[in-house]
Amino acid sequence: MKILLVMQGMQPEDWRRQLELLTPTETVGIWPGDGRLDSVKYALAWHPPHGALAQLPNLEAIFSLGAGVDHLIGDPALPNVPIVRIVDPNLTMRMTEYVVFHVLLHHRRFHDYDRQQKLKQWQELHQPAAKEVRVGIMGMGVLGTDAACKLRDLGFQVAGWSNSVKDISGIESFAGSDGLPAFLNRTDILVCLLPHTPDTEGILNKKLFNSLAQDGQLQGPVLINAGRGKLQIEDDIIAALDSGKLHAVSLDVFEHEPLPASSALWQHQGVTITPHNASESDDRALSKYILEQIKKYEAGDGLDNIVDNARGY
Ligand code: NDP
Ligand code: OXD
């Protein structure tokens, strides 16, 4: 047993079935029940309990079962082996669908028309052309770049903000804390696809909302967050919605998941909620990706998409 599934909040049996279908000669273990921990070379992990991976003395690589790795980096006993994260066209496309859908939802005033329909009201509302709307994407990595390009192709004015400057045709690039004020100042719809790291925690806060453009063609700035819940201060989001600093928000991720029934976000006008499924992991596609990586590694050709533990993503 060289592959072990160490996961919480996902169904390990489904993953085991997929993996064993693809490599019939391998037995895939499930933590903590399956013994022989010293034979494990590869851990496939999602929110493993802290310390679990440290019990694998011959571990050679950890595969995150998602694009984000904050669920691993926070483990103080994390073994010093490469962490590989998911980069998969299926996952990327699903995220792009989510982002484009929510940008259009706000741009085409879906919530206003929905309210009107409930009142049987036939009334056209002003909606600006895409070229008059400025979308800003925080996090121009694999996911942010794909969504940005699709939005650019729809005609939106798109800019991205990241650690390093990007050179992407038709997309304005801002970088680092020096570039943040100008980026926010030109943004009507803010899309957040940042990873959760010590630098990004709580970045979606009152100060940031106050810096968004107030002269746009929409009824006010819009926030779409599908990065991580720990990036946002939910009390600040509610206060910004109440004061008009934000007009509407679409949230796929939350400070605490599942979002507690007591959260004011559930019933707040202007809030659209999805249960952290902007880009669901597809166990068939991802199992194939991981097994290909293992094969490549065992052939001496290294691993792709290795996380930089110091940066945290
Ligand atoms: P990448 O690692 O490819 O991209 C991360 C981007 O964030 C990079 O552009 C990076 O800048 C930028 N960045 C990181 N830290 C900072 C910072 N402090 N300041 C400015 N920019 C920063 O990740 P992915 O695009 O693959 O995924 C992004 C995140 O999306 C994941 O970490 C995860 O949290 C979330 N996610 C959510 C899902 C959902 O269903 N809701 C599904 C999948 C992922 P640079 O390019 O310069 O390094
Ligand atoms: C991921 C996620 O990181 O689904 O892939 O959140």
Structural notes for this entry:
With 313 residues, the protein is of the alpha/beta class. It has 2 domains: 3-86 and 281-298, Rossmann fold (3-Layer(aba) Sandwich), CATH 3.40.50; 89-273, 3-Layer(aba) Sandwich (Rossmann fold). Helices cover 31% and strands 16% of the residues. It is built from 9 helices and 12 strands. It has helices spanning 12-22, 70-73, 89-107, 110-118, 142-153, 176-185, 206-211, 234-243, 283-298; strands at residues 3-7, 28-30, 42-46, 61-64, 83-84, 134-138, 157-162, 171-175, 189-192, 222-225, 248-251, 271-273. The strands form 2 sheets. It has a 7-stranded parallel beta sheet with strand order 8-7-6-9-10-11-12. The protein has a 5-stranded parallel beta sheet with strand order 2-1-3-4-5, covered by helices on one side. Helix 1 crosses helix 9. The protein starts with a strand and ends in a 15-residue tail after the last helix.
Output the keywords.
Rossmann fold; 5-stranded parallel beta sheet; binds oxalic acid; single chain; 313 residues; 16% strand; binds NADPH dihydro-nicotinamide-adenine-dinucleotide phosphate; 7-stranded parallel beta sheet; alpha/beta
